[in-house]
Amino acid sequence: CEMARFLSLCCVFASLVGVGALATQPRLSLSRRDISKLTTLGAAALALPPPSFASGGSTDLKTDRTVAMNKYLPRVKGGRDYWANQLPGQISGSDWTAIGVAVSVRPDPKDRRGQMKKYGPILGMVGPLELWASSFSRGAQRSPDTADMLAAVEEFKLAIELLDLATAEKVKDGGLFGFFGATKEPSASEREKNAKLALAKGSKALNDYLKVANGQLKAMGEPLLPLV
């Protein structure tokens, strides 16, 4: 029948196009590589230099770590507070617009030249998370604490990917026509599922990060950060 013939042609076409076709699909959500690139640029835009001791720095480790804490902790704390206090309500209220802003980069409305970018509170904390984690290593030698914290950041990026997917206007069609680059608007249930999964995954990642950071803060005699 005509439908069988159509499906057969689709299968042949898919096998001929293969991975090349998938590689040309428009990006529908942020990847961890995208997030890393954006947040590295964001850290530079926010005047957040890497820890001084990453290239030798001073000979006073305590001073170096105090300086790093003062640079990165405010944005880490701000992002943590947003995640714990605002994001759950936005998910339960299906406020996808607000969540989309929190995980995106947009032109800064205060910049008339249009050169500055404004990072959402969730996406904007990734750079400081990475830089602060690096402050617990010295030189090229990565400490166990830094390794654990950076591993947690990678998991947090996965949560951001899910939030971006939950707020996307269009997502890749998972059906037959997905081979041809077809997209569809995600359903309310799909958005909610991805967002709730992101909240659970991101909360665990942040807690894993904060537990290690709190060990360092305790050793420095500083107040501890509450978990999510």
What would your notes on this structure say?
It is built from eight helices and four strands, in the order H-H-H-H-H-E-E-H-H-E-E-H. With 228 residues, the chain is mostly helical. The protein has a two-stranded antiparallel sheet with strand order 1-2. Strands 3-4 form a two-stranded antiparallel sheet. Helix 3 (61-85) packs antiparallel against helix 8 (188-220) and helix 7 (144-167) runs antiparallel to helix 8. The longest helix has 33 residues, at 188-220. The chain is globular and about 55 Å long. Residues 1-29, 41-48 and 52-58 have low confidence and may be disordered.
Main features:
single chain, two-stranded antiparallel sheet, mainly alpha, 228 residues, 61% helix, 4% strand
Which structural category do the helix and sheet elements fall into?
A: mainly alpha
* Overall pLDDT metric: 77
Side by side, the strands of the main sheet go 1-2
Distance N to C terminus: 58 Å
Biggest sheet descriptor: 2 strands, antiparallel
Rg estimate, integer Å: 21 Å
> Helical amount among residues, as a percent range?
55-70%
Number of helices: 8
Count of distinct strands:
4
Strand content: under 5%
Shape: globular
- The quaternary organization reads as single chain
* pLDDT < 50 stretches: 1-29, 41-48, 52-58
The ordered string of helix (H) and strand (E) elements is: HHHHHEEHHEEH
